[in-house]
Amino acid sequence: MLELAEQTGLSELIDEQVDLPSIRVKSEAVNPAGKRTSIIAAMMCGADSIDDSNVLRAGSTPRVLDEVYAPSTLGSFCASSPSGTPTSSPR
Length: 91
Hints:
- It is a single chain.
- The chain has 5 helices and no strands.
- The chain has helices spanning 2-7, 10-17, 32-44, 61-64, 71-80.
- The protein is globular, with a radius of gyration of 13 Å.
């Protein structure tokens, strides 16, 4: 499923359609599309928390996605976004 999503342009779509106006920590702003794609891919694999995104680091996922990020990197990315923390609920 992840390979199909990438072949159909998931990363590009995310990069075009999802806008986070500012990131508080400059290092977290590096490759935001890749980090967003990793979060969505993890959810597609059944992850329901940032820690569960570790599922992407197993098997052959790295050959499907350009980059696979550690849960701590994805958590920092979410926490640095203006929308809140990884545990914040929708408003």
